[in-house]
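INFO  loader      accepted 1 record
INFO  loader      residues=542
INFO  predictor   begin
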Amino acid sequence: INSWLFNEDTVDQVLKHLMKHGHKVEGGDRLAKTIIFARKHEHAKFIEDRFNHHYPNHAGHFARIIDNYAKYPQSLIDDFSIKDKDPHIAISVDMLDTGIDVPEVANLVFFKPVYSKIKFWQMIGRGTRLCPDLLGPEEHKQDFRIFDFCFNFDFFRENPEGITASGSAPLGTRLFRARVQLLGHVQTNSALDPDATLKGSLTEGLHGEVAAMNPENFIVRMHLEAVEKFQQRDTWNQMTDSDREELNREVAGLPNTLETDDIEARLFDLKVLRMQLAKAEDDKATFERHRQRVVEMAMLLEEKTTIPAVAAQLEYLASMQAASFWEAIDLNALEDLRLRLRGLMSLIEKKKRKIVYTDFKDEVLSVREEELVYMPKMTGLQYEKKVKDYLRNHQNHLVIQRLRTNQPLTETDLQGLEQTLTEIGADEGETLLSNLLTRSSAPSLAHFVRSLVGMDRATAQEAFSKFLNDRSLTAQQIRFVEMVIDQLTTYGIVEDSALYEPPFSNLHAGGPDELFMGKENVIDGIFETLQSVHSGLISRAS
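INFO  predictor   done
INFO  writer      dumping tokens
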């Protein structure tokens, strides 16, 4: 790869593409702050030299190397962090991959291969900071661009977990080895699998995988002695430590003719296998780490109730979120969990953010939009549950009490409530709260909170007291008013259109207009009272 990275034409093409397609500021006259991630110091120096060659008027100040070889690296970082000060291009070797926070950065150039998932997302994070007025007055930073010249996105699409420093085996190899390891536990400790159900399924699955390895395949032929040994079913009946070591060393990961399931299902298989291994080895910390993630997946699946396959597992998904579900769970129960949910993993909706990057191979072949999967520390569903729990457990909070009793709120009240709900989401609180309000379709934070905490029953009864005390109304008409109060108490808000739908329409198919025929002043008064209850929220939220 060095011959490619140090090729003059290659670097020239990269710089040309960046200067043409990168985000611009100053009315489009200047490239926005940019980080070029170089492979090593010599590569960074080569890039800087080529830039100075093509842009002599900018030589020595517009693009600078920031790495451990720089005489005053912190001074360069400080200058780069100032909006209108040189340098505007930072050519970084590791130093700016993480930690730096420059909101003005709008272009990232991946000019080196990256194999660590954590580092990859940390590098992307250099462009995610918001920046008001970046492109001009009231023209805020809306996105950032990544120019990926080393096919890192393609790599992480095929290897979602990346490769660790010690080298990470392909997913199929890891699955095979984990199953061999688990089989060893259940073969040597029958208490883990009393009826040998798991032992049988693991044995059949592993043997089936080896049996599907074609001896004519040139890769398989290199390990043919071991493959032929384990293609014999009897070999699996009672394995020794030496057998398992041989399987992991010689057979794991060899090609076979079996069709593979989608990657989401197989990644879930691996996660549950790790839980089973942790259970067998009494590794509580590892088990708990994976358990939390599996519970998050169950919560995300609950959002897909309209899908029949998910609906069929709703009761099970809900039970997974209770501590009692996990208290006495064993290896076979975990296997049942895996089989129930593995086929649903592809239904979990990924949170996506659009980003532009380029494919490059000595010339820029194409530019395409890539769906960048954003991995928050807390899922939207987790955050929503935490918000609901907080509101439910703080009914006596002054601001919540005022909302429930329809009392005026000050701007300070609303700001304090917003800050509290934001803090629940920690570092991502603003984004999580904004997304939650968008999903709820609530016109304001006040509406949203009222819809969760409901309205105080006594307050709702007081608002509609003149109708409850109107002796001219029939029992059905009084019941209609009581239902309005019930709905306000439960949901906090009742839209006018809801009065024409169940449960209200159950009282009279013709709706409130026909139910209150001849008493138009009453139904008009009910609508006006509802508007009065809601209008306070609108004015307070503004």
